[in-house]
């Protein structure tokens, strides 16, 4: 028979044993949780590292593929990435000390037309005043959405005009005219063919010489165009940094001194595109187009965040 004292002693020992077991179990659970968390962190980190590495490799490969196209198959009046540089001084003669605003577009892209019709007139105004330099990057990735290679004919024509007509103002006027809401064709099933003659007439009305306009829309530089269509979206510096398309390129794409202008953020917050561009380069709206006032942002600085 167990005596009360012995029973109390036994119960005390049992409780102590249970306490130790619970403590040990608690420690094990904590260690398991820590191990799981560590595993998640390591897995996520490794996945992010791999993803970053893949993105870097894609960007390097894209830039190499652009350089690999033979000179004879490339437009002459462009930079290494397909940009046609325009300033108040003409082609490839930038104004020193002012920012460069670049626009990537496809002639069939509705959003590109909207940007062109609403914002480009102000960009041209600033460019002509020497407040900014411009770069335009015509692309033709929407070619399959027409029945007659509309995008590649127009994009080839833009490059051809830049190569054969020393009049960037007329080129910009032509681009504005093809983006006019009464001219730009619909994509896909609703596409209506546009003849080379019609495009040439648009170019001539924009101030392009007849002999240049009539030869401009023969799908010039097609190998370059195809390479650019494939390589340009793989350039990390052109990827959206916010919104549902973060991590990929969409058009229109706008950069300021090579830094992406966050169009997704502007649209998501119902901001005014022009106002945000002016803020990014440090220019008051009242000074837009003034030949005596320069933006605070120079040709090497980083634009202000939106």
Describe this structure in words.
This protein has 306 residues and is α+β, with helices and mostly antiparallel strands. The chain is built from ten helices and six strands; from the N terminus they run H-E-E-E-H-H-E-H-H-H-H-H-E-E-H-H. Strand 5 and strand 6 (259-260) form a beta hairpin. It has helices spanning 4-68, 110-118, 120-128, 150-164, 168-178, 196-205, 210-213, 222-231, 263-268, 273-281, and strands at residues 84-87, 90-91, 100-105, 133-138, 253-256, 259-260. It is 48% helix and 8% strand. Residues 1-11 and 13-49 have low confidence and may be disordered. InterPro entries: Thioredoxin-like_fold, Thioredoxin-like_sf.
Strand count, sense and closure of the main sheet? 6 strands, mixed
List the total number of helices.
Answer: 10
Name of the level-1 CATH class of the largest domain: Alpha Beta
Give the uncertain stretches in residue-range form: 1-11, 13-49
**Number of domain modules:** 2
Strand order of the largest sheet: 2-1-4-3-5-6
> Terminal Cα separation, in Å?
84 Å
Please tell me the CATH architecture of the largest domain by its name. Answer: 3-Layer(aba) Sandwich
Choose one word for the global shape: globular
- What is the percentage of strand-forming residues? 5-15%
Order of helical and strand elements: HEEEHHEHHHHHEEHH
Average predicted confidence as pLDDT = 87
- Using only C-alpha atoms, the radius of gyration works out to 30 Å
Structural class by sheet pairing and helices: alpha+beta
Number of strands: 6
CATH names the topology of the largest domain as Glutaredoxin
Name of the CATH superfamily of the largest domain: Glutaredoxin
Helix fraction bin: 40-55%
